[in-house]
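Anyone up for a design puzzle?
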């Protein structure tokens, strides 16, 4: 029989979270859920900001080109 592979970091954290959920009050769970939702929103905003910055950097040269001139 093969030995069990080691648990991933996510699996360890999920077990710990399940243990704490079983012992938490409703108010504790609400605060934790609100915190996680806020963290996800922050990550989403950071991702949008980084994407916009990369796009602006790629097209930044166009600011210095006079497109009105036709040769």
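Challenge accepted. My sequence:
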């Amino acid at each position: 029989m093969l030995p069990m592979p080691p648990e991933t970091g996510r699996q360890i954290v999920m077990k710990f979270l399940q243990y704490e959920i079983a012992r938490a009050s409703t108010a504790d769970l609400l605060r934790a859920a609100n915190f996680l939702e806020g963290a996800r929103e922050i990550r989403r905003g950071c991702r949008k900001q980084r994407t916009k910055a990369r796009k602006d950097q790629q097209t930044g040269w166009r600011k210095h080109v006079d497109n009105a001139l036709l040769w």
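A detail worth pointing out: Residues 45 and 51 are 10 Å apart (CA to CA).
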